[in-house]
Recover the amino acids of this structure.
């Protein structure tokens, strides 16, 4: 089956919000062990007053890359 047809078939069975929520749930379940090291590095190397912002931006960027690719 060609890729566009299989994509249309997947969307036909599940709504886009259902697929996105399932994908985000999978990210939340499987990615923390992989992100712990780089996030610790960001925590150690950022200034104290910017630490929360740096860590938040790292997590948002990481999720954005894995969600929209």
């Amino acid at each position: 089956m060609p890729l566009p047809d299989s994509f249309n078939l997947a969307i036909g069975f599940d709504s886009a919000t259902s697929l996105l929520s399932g994908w985000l749930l999978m990210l939340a379940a499987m990615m923390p062990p992989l992100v712990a090291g780089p996030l610790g590095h960001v925590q150690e190397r950022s200034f104290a007053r910017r630490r929360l912002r740096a860590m938040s931006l790292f997590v948002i960027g990481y999720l954005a890359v894995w969600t929209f690719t």
About this structure: Residues 31-69 form one domain. The chain has a mean pLDDT of 86. The helical segments are 3-13, 16-30, 32-45, 51-67. Residues 51-67 form the longest helix (17 residues).
